[in-house]
Amino acid sequence: MSRKVIIIMGIFLGVCCLFSCSKRTINHYDILIKGGQIVNGTGNPWFYADVGIRGDVIAAIGSLDADKADTVINAEGLVVSPGFIDLHTHCDEDLGKPGYNVNLNYLIQGTTTVVTGNCGMGTYKIAETKADWEKRGIGTNAVLQVGNIPVRRAVMGKDQLRSPTDEELKQMQKLVRQAMQEGAWGISTCLEYEGYDQFVTTEEVIALTRPVAEFGGLYNSHIRDEAYHLLEAIKEIIRISEETGVPVNISHLKACGRDNWGLMKEAVRLIQDARDRGIQITADQYPFLQGAPIDFITELVDIPPDMQPLAELREKAYNEELPKTEREQVRKQYVKELQNALRDPAKRERLRESTYEKRPDNPSPVVRWGWQDFRIKVARKNPRLVDKLLVDLIQEQKRDGFDVIADLILDEPDILFASSSQSVEDHRLAMIQNWVMVSSDGMAYPIIKETDKPVRGHPRDFSSQAIILRKYVREEKLLSLEEAIRKMTSLPAQVLKMKDRGLLLEGYKADIAVFNPETVRDNATYDNAWQYASGVEYVLVNGKIAVEKGKFNGTLNGRVLLKN
Fold first, then answer.
1. Most exposed of 115, 176, 208, 323 (fewest Cβ within 10 Å)?
2. Cβ-contact 292, 458 below 8 angstroms
3. Residue 484's beta-bridge partner residues?
4. Under DSSP, is residue 556 helix (H, G, I), strand (E, B) or coil?
5. pLDDT recorded at residue 22
6. d(Cα 281, Cα 268) in Å, to the nearest integer?
7. What's the whole-model pTM score?
8. What is the C-alpha to C-alpha distance for residues 552 and 564, in angstroms, rounded to an integer?
């Protein structure tokens, strides 16, 4: 072969190679996120890369400069992470309602999946709920759990504050198994409120959890006590896992009330020891010192059912079926009547007795938790009271607690209090554990307009993910960005055994949050709780953009996710 022929063949092969290589490396995506700082949910250090999305799946991660897409998102200066998964919400209470179904208070924070049916309140009608929600459309994905309380009520009826018969227990197990067959991810229980602490035994919970084991599900519990008997309650959930083989999760881990501050050290040790023995136990935590109940200080006074018109007015003021304006008007009447009753010595004494009555079911918050658990969060007329524990006021004034709050009601009835007071040290100790996830314990809300009046309440519904990124990552540096993202993405996915979400990896579903790490922040306060977070620029749910340049674009891209 001549030298000339060899040169020509070499040129020809080179051109062919160049052509074929070029053809092989040009890909087309539906959406291309370019130049972002990737925090992929594993906890590993961030890196720069592009993300290509086809349909609802992450198709490629890397240097995709030569590739094309229908939509290109410039993520320079922004963090690209998996969409957040909130393991503990009560969104199911309203997610099926028009307006609420957008779930914008979560979506705008970058939360793409909410786990519902917590604290024992989940439905056993999984297929029916899925069909109803998806017919109307939902803004975020939703995970359903079956709750022990609806199961109990369905089998035992109104007469449920007792132990079930053997036959009733079998029927309850049947409903749990039905829910798991229809796609529930596990069972949740409430063992603290409304008399359930008295009548739901450990053995009953174990029996209801056994069907969950058949489907590889999770046991998620509002444990029996979060205050004086916290350690005993943790030992109970560990026992349930040991006897059933089911992974367990403690809902909203906390040590409530000043008398119990410091218990978190022993709680963490108990849980870590169990994990070291091979028990699959984790916990979630909302990033606030205060929890529920949270309400006007008037609600610390217990109203006897036969004390009229007070009892009727109070019930009407909290009737969600009435228009908001009507409820506000009724509350004004209620407050006026309550103040009149507190000025009357005989009526005041009767209200005191009811507030302190030690009933076996549904006692007052004061009887259940004690004055040491309540903290004032909003007091416009008396700003010096903000963040004071009621027990401190009682000790300062050397008076009975009822008299202290009665006089506060006469002076400023719209003071807002919150319960579940934790210490900063306990709260931070729980947060840094590698088995503790971020949750909100919040609900779905209708879309809030800028013209809406401020609403007092707990800010966690609108800000639990954003406050982690603003306060605990950027400002206080208690958590690294990578660890915070892991706690909000892959860790809850791992606990649920969710195999295709929670990580930013090729082949995973394209639930993605794109946010500015320097500006992302919570804006909700106790005095104005319904305020959207800011700084999240884009949110993708199942491969479709729902939040664009920080604004909701009107699309409902969520799905009800089934386990099996």
1. 323
2. yes
3. none
4. coil
5. 47
6. 11
7. 0.93
8. 31
